[in-house]
Amino acid sequence: MVLDICRSFGISLDLALEAREILRGETGQEIPGVRVDRERYNEAEVTIVNIVEKAAEAIMGKPMGTYITIEAPVLRENNPAGHHRVSQILARQLEPFISPLPPHANILLVGLGNWRATPDALGPRAIGMSLVTRHLFQYAPRELKGGMRSVSALAPGVLGITGIETAEIIKGVVERIQPELMIVIDSLAARSVTRICTTIQIADTGIAPGSGIGNRRAGINRESMGVPVIAIGVPTVVHAAVIGQDTINAYLRQLQTATNAGLNQHLARQAIQQVLEPFGGNLTVTPKEIDSLIENTAKVIAGGLSLTLHPGLTADDYSYYLH
Fold first, then answer.
1. Which residues would be cut away as propeptide (predicted)?
2. Residues 6 or more apart in contact with residue 69 via CB below 8 angstroms
3. Fewer beta carbons within 10 Å, N or C terminal of the chain?
4. Model pTM?
5. Phi and psi angles of residue 207, each rounded to the nearest 5 degrees, phi first
């Protein structure tokens, strides 16, 4: 049922965790070729979905690879201490991707999205809070402390602002500075409103910008960029069709008769299509407090990146270099 509404409206499931939950719920069994592990912390639950077979790749609709999901409801609270602990959890999950790199490795951070639209501004905001050091390695090496890496950053904007495909801009920078690793930050679309700005996904498969809102751009991954790409994404919107379907399903469950439920599922889809027709069937919803949620989440991501990329720095050091 959920997959039907997603297919009807061309909704992509950005979170591998949600894709697995929906498929597993409809089949009643684990997906062959998918391995799942879990870790629990006081502030968060971490689910690691590994797609290890080509057949599973086709079923899940996602490339083979590792998808790490951090679910942390504390991100929606005014809780700086809790946010810092989530940054530490994020850093711990990123560590296996960073630690194999040599100390002199050059790392490029890319913040995808439109800084003029708050729900899509997570990437640029996180870049603005991240510690970049490549210029210091080149022009002020005496200012550097031990445990720092060469990090550069880019917020290329979107096609509607620049007139240039984002992947083209990034590819040009990659060819020029030749990083050993790229970390891309982007806003995602969720299946559930409870996951808006409470969930962080890390994927070693790269990203397709705009796919969650039906505006798929050229992929940013190892194949297109020529370097490994780690994607960090946070859901900031939910498709209105999904919310509508959930509302109608809740109503139908209250009817408690299979006949009425079966009859109204088709009518429900028609009703949703009529409501969304002025928007071409493509309407996404975000909470009214999205400004503060984006700010908090961007800080958490920037903090997690700094802890991972510059393990030799203290909080005071971080503040010194950032300003």
1. 1-14
2. 15, 16, 17, 46, 47, 48, 49, 199, 200, 201, 202
3. C
4. 0.84
5. -155, 155
Q: In whole angstroms, what is the distance from residue 237 CA to residue 283 CA?
A: 10
Give the Cα separation of 196 and 112 in Å (integer): 18
What is the total count of domains within the chain? 1
Strand boundaries in 72-197, DSSP class E: 106-111, 150-154, 181-190
- The pair of three-digit structure tokens given for residue 315, joined into one six-digit string: 């909080």
* CATH number for the domain that contains residue 283: 3.40.50.1450
Run of H or E residues at 70: strand 65-71
| Domain assignment present for 321 | no
3-class SS of residue 189: strand
Q: Is the pLDDT of residue 255 over 80?
A: no
Separation of CA 194 from chain center:
15
**% the chain with pLDDT above 90:** 53
**What are the pLDDT digits (tens) for 263-308?**
456 666 666 666 556 555 566 778 889 999 999 999 999 999 999 9
- Domain assignment present for 320: no
The DSSP letter of residue 277 is G
User: How confident is the model over 14-69, as pLDDT tens digits?
Assistant: 888 888 887 776 556 778 899 999 999 999 999 999 999 999 888 888 899 999 99
234 close to 195: Cβ distance less than 8 angstroms: no
Token pair in block for residue 128: 């603005």
Q: Is residue 318 part of a domain?
A: no
CA dihedral 232, 234, 240, 242 (to 10 degrees): 80
Q: How many Å apart are CA 100 and CA 180, to the nearest integer? A: 11
Domain span including residue 206:
2-313
Tokens encoding 107: 């790392």
Convert the pLDDT of each residue in 193-211 to its tens digit: 889 999 999 999 998 765 5
Secondary structure of residue 77 in the 3-state scheme: coil
Structure tokens at 273: 């299509």
| pLDDT tens figures, 114-171 | 989 999 999 999 999 999 999 998 899 888 888 899 999 999 998 888 999 999 999 9
